Amino acid sequence: MKDPLKDIIGSLGSELKEKKVVLCITGSIAAVESPEIARVLMRYGAEVHTAMSISAQKIIQPVAFEWATGNPVIVDLTGKIEHVQLAGEWIGRADLVLIAPSTANTIGKIANGIDDTVVTTIATTAIGSGIPLLIVPAMHVSMYKHPALIENIKKLESFGVEFIVPHIQEGKAKIQEVQEIVERVISRLSEKDMLNLKVLIMAGPTIEQIDPIRVITNKSSGKMGIALTKEAFRRGADVKLIYGPGQENPPSYIDCIRVESTEEMFNVVISELESDDFHFVVSVAAIADYTPVKRFDHKIVSKDTKELSLKLKSTPKIIEKVKQISPDIFLVAFKAEYNIKKDELINRAHEKLKLVNADLIIANDVGKSGVGFGEDKNEAFIIDKDKKIIHILPSLKSEVARKIFSNALEKFQKKE
Ligand SMILES: Cc1cc2nc3c(=O)[nH]c(=O)nc-3n(C[C@H](O)[C@H](O)[C@H](O)COP(=O)(O)O)c2cc1C
Questions:
Q1: Quick one: 161 and 255 in the same domain?
Q2: Cis peptide before 250 (omega within 30 of 0)
Q3: Number of domains comprising the chain
Q4: How far does the centroid of ligand 1 lie from the alpha carbon of residue 192, in Å?
Q5: From the CA of 80, how far away is ligand 1's center (Å)?
Q6: Same domain, 33 and 86
Q7: CA of 379 to the centre of ligand 1 (A)
């Protein structure tokens, strides 16, 4: 039977499998969010150890972290030299140290080589032994604006320490969403095999106005596109996301342009392709194929309109323009079908690949339950120009994204 405190390890993905993360907590009220940070790190596969400053222990009890991680909490340094055990130069050390939240006080001490708490001593040891250190500041804006703090952050950045910039809300520099903090940890620990490569991703649905309040759209959420965006970022690519009106929140560290209609998506994509040299374009957006011929400029009054016929016209095919503008780009297209036989799905996808001159096409049947639109999982076939097929069994969209980029990158490198 699994350890009941650790049975969640790997439940959301394997991105942090076999990684040891030290989560340090300091005396900010945001410390109440730290157990959740520990749990989400574990859900992606990490083994988490925690260390707390005395001020942090006044805000939240160590027992919360003992429960959250299934490991003893370091509240004091003893003859076991816990700081060296976790962050020193030996084989069993941690892969990354994360201070979340970090007070201004702790940042100031680390920047100036002072280590008089458990947290600052672990941080000093990590910097000295080359373990990645990520700091998530939290404080009132007045503290965040202090020139000494600004200097301390700059100084630490020059030592290779990374900061997860807080968002300013209600006069406070608040820590980013838990998911986003974990995403940065994953990214920091991922292999950077896409450095210096530029990727443009189109994701989500588009909407076409019928009248000022009624629209035609589809069920795409943008989850697959955001998973692909995160994957490219993790691998070190320079990613830009063009995202339709889906309900997902793209991570704040991603350069994202929000669009609504197909026309807007078209204009943004064309202008991006004309003004920048992208290496990859991934078109996973469910772009409306039809738009009303006429858009009513007033709300259609339903009591006067017993029957309503809408005349639709087809929209321009953005994906067909990609290779016309940038013939050398590596184009990854998607083809979604509903409830059709596998062979038919593959044939139709391959026809589309040829039509748009794509390098790869990802085919999926959104009629299957538990995969596709709005779901966390996907089942897909990666099909290349020679109709060589790789079947990705139902798996988390992050996993599907990883396989797609591994495949695309391999082919791109051969093409170069
Ligand atoms: C309830 C409470 C909330 C606090 N929140 C913050 C904070 O968000 N950021 C900060 O820099 N200091 C905050 N402080 C002040 C720090 O706890 C104080 O500077 C302390 O010396 C930090 O010690 P440490 O860095 O070793 O944890 C807070 C104090 C209290 C009592």
A1: no
A2: no
A3: 2
A4: 35
A5: 28
A6: yes
A7: 47
In the chain, how long is the greatest CA-to-CA distance?
84
Kindly state whether residues 254 and 182 are assigned to the same domain: no
* Residue 314, CA distances (Å) to 293, 308, 354 in order: 9, 19, 20
Please indicate, yes or no, whether residues 158 and 257 belong to a single structural domain of this protein. no
Residue 13 lies in a domain: no
Q: How far is the CA of 394 from the centre of ligand 1 (A)?
A: 45
Which residue's CA is minimally distant from atom 12 of ligand 1?
A: 103
In whole angstroms, what is the distance from residue 155 CA to residue 147 CA?
Answer: 12
Query: Measuring from each residue's beta carbon to the nearest atom of ligand 1, which residues come in under 6 Å?
Result: 26-30, 53, 55-56, 59, 103-106, 117, 138-139, 143
- Specify whether 205 is located in the same domain as 159: no
Q: Which domain holds residue 53?
A: 20-189
Contact 21, 48 (CB under 8 A): yes
Is residue 184 domain-shared with residue 203, that is, in the same domain? no
Distance 370 CA to ligand 1 centre (A): 45
Per-residue pLDDT tens digits of the chain, which is 416 residues long: 678 889 999 988 889 999 999 999 999 999 999 999 999 999 999 999 999 999 999 999 999 999 999 999 999 999 999 999 999 988 889 999 999 999 999 999 999 999 999 999 999 999 999 999 999 999 999 999 999 999 999 999 999 999 999 989 998 889 999 999 999 999 999 999 999 999 999 999 999 999 999 999 998 899 999 999 999 999 999 999 999 999 998 988 899 999 999 999 999 999 999 998 999 999 999 999 999 999 999 998 888 778 888 999 999 999 999 999 999 999 999 998 888 898 999 999 999 999 999 999 999 988 777 776 778 888 999 999 999 999 999 988 999 999 999 999 999 998 77
Question: Do 275 and 318 belong to one domain?
Answer: yes
* CATH value at residue 157: 3.40.50.1950
Measure the CA–CA gap between 184 and 230, rounded to whole angstroms.
10
Residue 227 alpha carbon to ligand 1 centre in Å: 35
Mutation probe of ligand 1 site: the residue of 103, 141, 153, 163 with most atoms within 8 A of C-beta: 103
d(CA 337, CA 347): 11
Tell me: do 163 and 286 sit in the same domain.
Answer: no
- The total of other beta-carbon atoms located within 10 Å of residue 66's CB is 14
Amino acid identity of residue 43, one-letter, is R
Nearest alpha carbon, ligand 1 atom 9? 139
Q: Which residue has the tokens 């009248």?
A: 211
Closest residue by CA, ligand 1 atom 1: 29
